[in-house]
Amino acid sequence: MHPDRHTLPSIVTSLPGPLATAVIQRDDKVISPSYTRSYPLVAARGEGAMVEDVDGNRFLDFSAGIAVVSTGHCHPKVVAAIQHQAAELIHMSGTDFYYESMVQLAEKLAGLVPGGVPRRVYFGNSGTEAMEAAIKLARYHTGRKQFVAFYGAFHGRTMGSLALTSSKNTQKKNFFPMMPGVHHVPYADCYRCAYGKHPDTCAVECVKAIEDPLFRTVLPPEEVAAIVVEPVQGEGGYLVPPRKFFDELRRVADQYGILLVFDEVQCGMGRTGKMFACEHFDAVPDIVALAKGIASGLPLSATIARAEIMDWKPGAHASTFGGNPVSIAASLATLELLENELIDNAARMGAHIQNRMADFPSRFPVVGDVRGLGLMIGIELVRNQATKERAPDLRDKLVQMCFERGLLVLGAGPNTVRLSPPLVITREQADFAVDTLAGCLARLVTDGTA
Ligand SMILES: Cc1ncc(COP(=O)(O)O)c(C=O)c1O
Fold first, then answer.
1. N or C, fewer C-beta in 10 Å, the chain?
2. pLDDT digit string (tens) for 177-223?
3. In ligand 1, which atom is closest to the CA atom of 161?
4. What residue spans in the chain does CATH classification 3.40.640.10 cover?
5. Residues 152-186: tens digit of each pLDDT
6. Burial of 214 (C-beta count, 10 Å sphere; 0-12/13-18/19+)
């Protein structure tokens, strides 16, 4: 039976149930052990914000397949667009041939990116491909080889983007040497400011440090192709910088002729309550990378640059599958839904959830910080609010407890729980999630685990 998108979780077996257990045992023998599964969910079908497992348990999905199913699971309009396109033309390779929908989506995306300047679009299939394109384009256009990236960043796992990634060392272990020329600096993590400052009064020391000591001592700025930044840092812990962080990054970039690359793979596509997270800060990228929520679950990514920057010649970069017609049809349907209703819903539901969780730090001593924009919300767990000692074990326990109660959430960073539901959630579902989290946190505290 299909779950009703407006109903709430219902757990009918022990978890994992018998059918899920059987799948997991088979998975264990044949699937790459490099995958990280937080809990034993074996999904069978989904609708809206609900996912049903193979044993008939129904979950409220506050992970959205890692922030991907922006319009919810199997939105009827997205499904119809996919079905229609699959019967017309599944693949032609837009790198060698033309088809109109690719142009249509590029025109749409180019017009959506803030800045009001002409832009060109390169299509790929994943976030990491969007970033590889951004890296190569930045080198190609500037003729420079060096990059500045941020601690805690996640930009992907292929050999170019992996060099920029810096959220966990397991992602790099045994894969050296990396692409040379990447220099990491502290992100604007205002809860744990690397310079001991407060966001209201700081002088954006984290950006000043790019000029001094980095540029002054080790990295000639005229050799830097791009500064690469997530407008809201995702895998690093759902960190929201202050607006002046972006003002300063733009100043530094312009002063030294450096490109500013925004990785909106996780924070883009309406998740934060605006189409792109950078719009919250009136920040304009030279190059922006999109993926995840762009096509509601079909593989698609876009690297969008100012037209005069995307000046590479035929053959410089391409992909057989990038921008395939079915993914593009899903994306066009997704964008229509986002613009018509879901970005507004993300803003409304996000504000509601954050209002309801604002008192979590005073109610639960294990909560150090609650932060976010729209439906990109992080809850950071600490052992001690005064020392801010991280509590990764409590975070993992909280994620597990939520699963047992029918709420799917994921971790981000060492000790943060991330809420990244589909943008279709109802108020009832938002309240269920907040109540479940509150109940689990109370339990964590009374159990004395804290
Ligand atoms: C900000 C960001 N950039 C890039 C990526 C890589 O995307 P993919 O896993 O599709 O390669 C991710 C994935 O989580 C991400 O969050």
1. N
2. 999 999 999 999 999 999 999 999 999 999 999 999 999 999 999 99
3. 4
4. 92-323
5. 999 999 999 999 999 999 999 999 999 999 999 99
6. middle
The CATH architecture assigned to 92-323 reads 3-Layer(aba) Sandwich (3.40)
Q: What's the Cα-to-Cα distance from 238 to each of 110, 133, 373, 381, 391, rounded to whole Å?
A: 26, 24, 9, 13, 16
| pTM of structure | 0.97
CA distance 99 to 93: 9
| Domain 18-75+342-446 superfamily per CATH | Aspartate Aminotransferase, domain 1 (3.90.1150.10)
In the 8-state DSSP scheme, what is residue 417?
E
Predicted local confidence at residue 449, as pLDDT:
58
Which of ligand 1's atoms lies nearest the C-alpha of 129? 11
Distance CA 69, CA 202 (A): 37
Which tokens sit at 307? 């037209």
Which tokens is 45 given? 């079908």
Crossing angle, helix 325-337 and helix 76-88, to 10 degrees? 150
